[in-house]
Specification:
By secondary structure, this protein is an all-alpha fold. 65% of the residues lie in helices and 0% in strands.
Length: 171
């Protein structure tokens, strides 16, 4: 069952979604809230209500997601397509999103009493820790490739340094 545009307007649904979006910590969250549609049936409504009640319990202890800065939303299509490639600083932004997701997942898992609706939403998410560790091993805090990012890079940078030292010695 879909709600008509007239019914949505009478319920002030668009205004509600904008208000909900204003409370979001990220641009992606804001857009997702603004694009919400009313539940199609009583079962979907009950599931949303349970998830909302569980999220409210978590929010009592503070924001679920820390402020992640601007521009995250623009990175998603580029991440999917690979064009243009992400810069190091942008990859660090995405690593921050992944770390925030881990923190939320851990809060959901540690909640007492349990949060089954939120746990079900988080269950299909793959563990991002291996990717986060790889990013941290590869990029420094500014997003530049670390000198020790790979054995081959260590060898190449060593050769560059020796060549530079020889050149300075000759000068």
């Amino acid at each position: 069952m879909r709600i008509s545009e007239a019914s949505a307007a009478a319920l002030e649904w668009p205004a509600f979604c904008r208000l909900l979006g204003a409370l979001a910590e990220t641009e992606l969250g804001r857009r997702r809230a603004e694009q919400l549609r009313p539940a199609a049936d009583a079962e979907a409504l009950a599931a949303r209500r349970q998830a909302t009640e569980e999220a409210s319990r978590l929010l009592a202890d503070g924001a679920l997601v820390p402020p992640l800065g601007e521009g995250i939303e623009a990175l998603v299509p580029r991440l999917r397509s690979g064009h243009p490639p992400l810069a190091g600083a942008e990859i660090l932004q995405l690593a921050a999103v992944l770390r925030a997701g881990v923190a939320v997942r851990d809060r959901i898992a540690a909640a007492d009493p349990p949060l089954p609706a939120l746990a079900a939403l988080a269950a299909p998410l793959r563990d991002p820790q291996p990717l986060i560790r790889r990013i941290e091993r590869t990029l420094d805090r500014r997003g530049a490739v670390r000198d020790d990012a790979s054995p081959q890079l260590v060898a190449l940078r060593g050769r560059i340094q020796r060549a530079r030292d020889e050149l300075y010695g000759e000068l």
